[in-house]
């Protein structure tokens, strides 16, 4: 007969669980004398019942060996989240042991497992006891499961809080469990300003029963509703403190622009900034967006400026010629310098709201190129020629009139090299002057006379007492002297405007070749100081030799009376009528400014009667000292013309004109685009002197910007004398409708 051993398993409950007694092996009332271990199970299952998530529950299980020999329970196991300890047992005949069965609910679900004991009982090697439990999901009994269990009850310990509960606003309790702030009744995302005034912290709602009112909401002006809760006057749409002139006694002429109001400062931007019914009328140079002063007391920054793209990235560089850079006194000479501010969406700007000017000084430039010798005067003139070396990018031309004791020189530096820290010794071409020729006092821009696709170099110099021009065709390299230039032309006259206003290329006669226009208001062609304008026509055949401008080109205009000053300044302008040729602008001292249509007819001479448009001058203005093509500041997609005067105050004035065709004669006060005026109170001494040859797009916004300078500018607050100079940049950002 086999041995019979019984093991009794008794559970002691430590929770509200249920223990069902086992009936698998009825108790024999003692040990089995046969010597075999015997397992006897008194429970059939263990149910921990309903438990809370995260709480620990324990059941103690007693194991009895009712056999005659040692019972070895080699394994005690149960599935998670239930745990049992110990994991094995050794029980002598008739002895007992306890197992600790624990549960910590880690999920909102029902759990079912089995407590499995594996032993050496020959009759029942494995005993399995079902184990179960359920995690409570509605603790407060309100019929809504808590959110963690996938329900919608946001507070399962309070029967008054559930999704269908009535919401009481502003008590700090989310009764209906909608997740919204109890201080945001209209649900617009902003709390009532009665409880939270800080809009950056989600407050500031000035009308919490209307979802259309909140900080940052679209606020339609002039409806007397403060929907954005900023507390501002609803009849001051731009928030500049001035009410719209369209309502009541308001005087703001543009209530959509905070810079425009009766207290506004007039700027050169095509707008009536001060609401005086006159756009750009008397703007101050200090209103330009960027200004850069000289670094030293007598630098005379702004002597020359230019704008052009040196690396082909679509952003034009700002270039400044500073021929007296580092001069120690007002009468000292200098090696000079050229500074380059790289183009981009923003130029360097150190100004602040409390100190709006200047933007910086020459130290803020990206590149500084200094003259080789102490009296070179590098920077006497600067421009971006165009592509001189056939690499596809613009190249930098720099005049240095003091080289070799006044012979002068022009350095042509590759655009990429100019932006890479190179200097005059790295020039791809150098043209040197002769004795006292002051070569480099003016340089033409964007000239391709022979149509070969390369920019040509036309540099001004002095020939005895007359102005002259040297021509070197594009693609040249190395170094050559003035006498070996491809061509030299002499004018009859000595006015400095001849070279300060060096020409910008354009096709005047419409033949497909770019032409050169020079003028001198002191030329004695038809009368003493009658002045003259010459055109050198572009052509496939190249020019050569030395001759006069009147011989090589056409004297297109000449003053017939003494001191008429025809050609005091001249320049090719934009194509105002879209016929493919450039128009011609001429300033005459005896009258003012004339605009002539381009075309084949311009091969002949012109008189005042041929002008398509003319602007009469008043006697209060000094003669023009510069005429240039700037950007489109009047918004008609045609670049405008700007005239510079050394006005009677000595501080400088620039006046610009709409280049669109206007028939008939007009007084300049009724048709000008605007004017900008230097003042001694702002330190100006000769504002406008350093006119850029042509406007170009610095910031890549599709509109040409413009620059000029005042080499006599001096800090009005300084205790010492000086002429640091200033470079001014006019960003063409806001155009007139």
What can you tell me about this protein's structure?
The strands form 9 sheets. This protein has a 6-stranded mixed β-sheet with strand order 2-3-10-9-5-7, with no helix packed on it. A 5-stranded mixed β-sheet has the order 11-39-37-36-35. The protein is 3% helix and 31% strand. Mean pLDDT is 88; it is low at 1-16 and 22-29. Strand 32 (583-588) and strand 33 (592-596) form a beta hairpin. 50% of the residues are buried. The chain contains 5 helices and 41 strands.
Annotation field: number of helices: 5
**Which overall shape is indicated by the principal axes computed on the Cα atoms?**
elongated
Radius of gyration: 46 Å
Which runs of at least 5 residues are low in confidence (pLDDT < 50)?
1-16, 22-29
Question: Quick one: how many beta strands?
Answer: 41
Distance, first to last CA: 117 Å
- Strand proportion, as a percent range, falls in 25-35%
Main sheet overview: 6 strands, mixed
- What is the averaged pLDDT score? 88
Biggest sheet, spatial arrangement of strands: 2-3-10-9-5-7
The secondary-structure class comes to: mainly beta
Helical content band: under 10%
């Amino acid at each position: 007969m086999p041995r019979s051993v019984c093991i009794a398993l008794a559970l002691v409950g430590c929770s509200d669980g249920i223990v069902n007694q086992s009936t698998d092996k009825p108790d024999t009332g003692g040990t089995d004398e046969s010597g075999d271990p015997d397992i006897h199970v008194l429970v059939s299952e263990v149910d921990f019942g309903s438990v809370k998530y995260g709480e620990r529950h324990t059941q103690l299980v007693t194991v009895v060996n009712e056999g005659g020999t040692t019972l070895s329970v080699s394994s005690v196991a149960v599935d998670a989240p239930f745990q049992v300890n110990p994991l094995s047992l050794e029980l002598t005949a008739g002895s007992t042991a306890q197992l600790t069965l624990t549960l910590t609910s880690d999920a909102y679900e029902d759990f079912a497992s089995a407590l499995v004991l594996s032993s050496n009982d020959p009759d029942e090697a494995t005993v399995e006891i079902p184990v179960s439990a359920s995690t409570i999901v509605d603790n407060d009994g309100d019929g809504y499961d808590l959110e963690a269990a996938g329900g919608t009850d946001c507070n399962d310990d309070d029967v008054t809080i559930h999704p269908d509960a009535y919401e009481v606003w502003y008590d700090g309790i989310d009764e209906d469990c909608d997740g919204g702030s109890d201080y945001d009744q209209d649900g617009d995302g902003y709390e009532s300003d009665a409880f939270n005034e800080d809009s950056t912290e989600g407050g500031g709602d000035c009308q919490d029963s209307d979802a259309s009112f909140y900080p940052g909401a679209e606020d339609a002006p002039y409806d007397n509703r403060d929907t954005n809760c900023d507390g501002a006057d609803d009849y001051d749409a731009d928030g500049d403190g001035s009410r719209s002139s369209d309502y009541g006694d308001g005087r703001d002429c543009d209530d959509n622009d905070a810079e425009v109001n009766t207290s506004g400062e007039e700027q050169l931007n095509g707008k009536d900034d001060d609401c005086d019914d006159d756009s750009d009328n008397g703007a101050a140079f200090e209103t330009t967006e960027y200004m850069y002063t000289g670094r030293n007391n007598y630098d005379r920054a702004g002597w020359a400026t230019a704008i052009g793209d040196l690396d082909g990235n679509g952003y034009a560089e700002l270039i400044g010629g500073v021929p007296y850079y580092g001069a120690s006194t007002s009468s000292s000479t200098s090696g000079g310098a050229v500074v380059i501010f790289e183009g981009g969406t923003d130029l360097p700007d150190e100004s602040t709201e409390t100190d709006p000017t200047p933007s910086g000084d020459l130290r803020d430039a990206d590149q500084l190129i200094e003259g080789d010798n102490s009296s070179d005067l590098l920077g006497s003139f600067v421009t971006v020629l165009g592509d001189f070396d056939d690499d596809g990018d613009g190249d930098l031309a720099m005049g240095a009139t003091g080289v070799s004791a006044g012979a002068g020189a022009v350095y042509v530096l590759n655009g990429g090299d100019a932006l890479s820290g190179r200097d005059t010794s790295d020039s791809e071409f150098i043209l040197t002057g002769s004795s006292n020729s002051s070569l480099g006092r003016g340089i033409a821009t964007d000239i391709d006379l022979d149509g070969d696709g390369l920019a040509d170099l036309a540099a001004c110099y002095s020939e005895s007492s007359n102005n002259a021009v040297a021509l070197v065709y594009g693609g040249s390299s190395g170094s050559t002297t003035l006498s070996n230039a491809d061509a030299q032309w002499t004018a009859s006259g000595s006015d400095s405007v001849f070279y300060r206003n060096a020409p910008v290329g354009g096709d005047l006669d419409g033949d497909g070749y770019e032409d050169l226009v020079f003028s001198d208001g002191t030329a004695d062609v038809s009368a003493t100081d009658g002045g003259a304008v010459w055109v050198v026509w572009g052509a496939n055949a190249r020019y050569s030799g030395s001759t006069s401008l009147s011989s090589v080109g056409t004297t297109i205009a000449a003053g017939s009376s003494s001191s008429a000053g025809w050609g005091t300044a001249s320049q090719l302008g934009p194509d105002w009528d879209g016929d493919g040729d450039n128009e011609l602008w001429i300033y005459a001292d005896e009258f003012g400014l004339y605009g002539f249509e381009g075309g084949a007819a311009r091969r002949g001479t012109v008189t005042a009667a041929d002008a398509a448009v003319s602007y009469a001058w008043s006697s209060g203005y000094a003669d023009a000292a510069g005429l240039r093509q700037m950007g489109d500041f009047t918004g008609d997609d045609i670049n405008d013309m700007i005239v510079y005067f050394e006005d009677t105050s000595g501080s400088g004035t620039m006046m610009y004109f709409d280049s669109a065709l206007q028939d008939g004669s007009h007084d300049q006060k009724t048709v000008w685009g605007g004017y900008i005026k230097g003042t001694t109170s702002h330190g100006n001494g000769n504002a406008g002197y350093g006119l850029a040859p042509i406007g170009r797009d610095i910031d890549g916004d599709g509109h040409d910007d413009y620059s000029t300078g005042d080499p006599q500018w001096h800090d009005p607050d300084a205790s010492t004398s000086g002429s640091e100079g200033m470079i001014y940049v006019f960003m063409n950002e806001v155009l007139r409708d």
